[in-house]
Amino acid sequence: MDTPDPNIPDLFWGAGLLGLAIGLAIYLAVLALMLWIGYLIIKAAVRNGLREHTLWLESRRGPLR
User: Fold this and answer.
1) CA atoms within 13 Å, Cβ hemisphere of 17
2) What superkingdom does the record give (predicted)?
């Protein structure tokens, strides 16, 4: 198995490497998108929770400074 198979042209090896690179790029892009959407969801939840907590505090003690 030291010599490459003569039935498989070198073009297919290049196409396979190109496909691997494109697949890796798409995988990383989807992963980054999922992390970004998760960050936005958590950010919105924290903001809403702080707003509700502030309104609850103000209803008990009056306006905060």
Assistant:
1) 4
2) Bacteria
CA distance 44 to 1: 58
Q: Evaluate whether 54 touches 64 at the Cβ level (below 8 Å).
A: yes
Residue 64 pLDDT > 70: no
Grouping H, G, I as helix, E, B as strand and the rest as coil, residue 65 is coil
The pTM is what? 0.65
Give one word for 8, left, alpha or beta, with left for phi > 0 and alpha for psi -120 to 50. Answer: beta
Tokens 């103000």, residue located: 58
pLDDT computed for residue 33 by the predictor:
98
